[in-house]
Amino acid sequence: MHTVEPDVVTDVLIVGSGPAGASAALALSTYGVPNIVVTRYASLADTPRAHITNQRTMEVLRDLGVEEEVVAKATPQRLMGDTTFCTSLAGEELGRIRSWGNDPLVQAAHELASPTRMCDMPQHLMEPVLVDAAVARGTHLRFGTVYKSFVQDDDGVTVTVEDRLRGDEYTIRAKYLIGADGGRSQVAEDAGLPMGGQMGVAGSINIVFDMDLSKYTAHRPSTLYWVLAPGATVGGIGAGLVRCVRPWNEWLIVWGYDVTAGAPDLTTEYAESIVRRLVGDDEIPVTVKSSSAWTVNEMYAETYSHGRVFCAGDATHRHPPSNGLGSNTSIQDAYNLAWKLKLVLDGTASPRLLDTYTAERAPIGRQIVTRANKSIGETAPVFEALDGLSPQTPEQLWANIAARKDDTEAAEKQRAKLREAIAFKVYEFNAHGVDLNQRYSAESSSAVVPDGTPDPGFDRDPELYHQPTSRPGAKLPHAWITCGTRTLSTLDTVGRGRFTLLTGIGGAHWLRAAGAQDLEIATAVIGPGQQYEDPYGDWARLREVADGGALLVRPDGYVAFRHATAAASLEDAERLLTGAVRRILGHG
């Protein structure tokens, strides 16, 4: 048992103020759970880092009340535009792919899938939104505070931290500890979380700079410009990435280096030379703001917790930025964990509920690490189409690129091959299913109650296409409904830290059964003349249950329990719903 009096006491201590830590704090404070965030740094993120913010994350931010602020500060979806492949921004264009929902057919799918829109929200703008809202709602934030170690017992975790300003150490006693301390997580290491995969599979350099590139980019707006840069030192060919941070004068370049030889000396002159090479214009003034080296990783945690210690974000899944999955998955990890901690801390749920965090999120983490690394490999065919992977002189590569314009049978085949290779990048730049098809299995998670129906799987490619369903373990489908003169999403009827029971005409037994539970359950009745109406008929098409059927939706918007028809009696409704609630809360 804990005997030494700690210096500070809280319910949840969060190590790290990045997307995972900040969103965990925001959710916990929104739910009324006391929490402290410590970060070793003196400020929040000062570089853009993560940026793609997908629809599922925007739904989370919508529920946590910060969606509008993010939209106001982000680059909108329409300017995320067409991923462009070129020899330099000023040079030849090799092709484009409509990306991030900007293909007309994909845009329609985005509008059908969610009330939110994806956007480009750089991390140095996102973190203040999350942290400011968390602090305003009760989070205590400590900068310059280094996590040193933890000791846990049956009742809590005692964490030793160092105050970098004063130079002394003190202890924080928490009931639970969240390690959101990034890709080199000390908390994950100290907790002994087993990892799969490997670190340091390739080397990369980030260069952040200011440069007015509007004459090369405004007419073809994009978040990403891929540059085939002949003469690079790595393997005879380099693919550079020019990423828009703020249209069209703030940028970030990603450039590779040979990880076996170590990172180059990141002087201002070196950084400027890379910028000039990828932009292809020596006249425009440039200001290099920062440069840093990092490694591409392919690693995932097999378990996300040990006792009262939980990890989230890059501490548990480490991968390249392909597909823009990093901060999205981190925020969704925290959102999954926060409501479970809240219910356990207030005595509503058994600590067994917390076992479902690993059961639900670890498979997602592994999936996105695999997908992000696979996307890197899927870029190679673009270069293969130009015979650009075999060692050769820059002059030969330029000749290969020029040859695609010839009026020959070989050139026609080359053009077709290049078009096909660029089009295949849809798996990175328009993977709508990867963003929205995350489902939790009732076989592994007790917070999902099976309804006895066989899983029909997916009708189309589950990475490319979102397929809404009300099956337990899936995200509640979005449909526009009305309440008086207001139009709102079905997603707006759920969340806010509580369970919600959705039903329709004929669902009276379900409503009474929900009111009889020891758990707070909000209710939403959708149908003609009811609390909510379905004027378009969209909900009736998507709900997959009858008017009198029921869906019990968790605080994170996932369906936990489904019954296809009206309950035969109040007793039946109470028996079924009580059994489901007991299973979910770990009392079954």
What spatial form do the alpha-carbon principal axes imply? globular
Q: Main β-sheet, in a few words?
A: 8 strands, mixed
> Beta-sheet strand percentage?
25-35%
**Can you give the mean pLDDT?**
94
Poorly predicted spans: 231-237
Radius of gyration, whole Å: 25 Å
Treating each run of at least 4 consecutive H or I residues as one helix, how many helices? 18
Structural class assignment: alpha+beta
Distance separating the two termini: 29 Å
Number of strands: 24
Helix content: 25-40%
Brief synopsis:
With 588 residues, the chain is of the alpha+beta class. The protein is built from 18 helices and 24 strands. Strand 9 and strand 10 (168-179) form a beta hairpin.
Architecture overview:
Pfam families: FAD_binding_3 (PF01494), Rng_hyd_C (PF21274). Residues 10-372 form the FAD-binding domain. This protein has 18 helices and 24 strands. The protein has 588 residues and is an alpha+beta fold. The strands form 5 sheets. Strands 1, 2, 7, 8, 9, 10, 16 and 17 form an 8-stranded mixed β-sheet that branches. It has an 8-stranded mixed β-sheet with strand order 5-4-12-13-14-11-15-18, sandwiched between helices. α16 (508-515) crosses α18. The longest helix is centred in the middle third of the chain and has 23 residues, at 355-377.
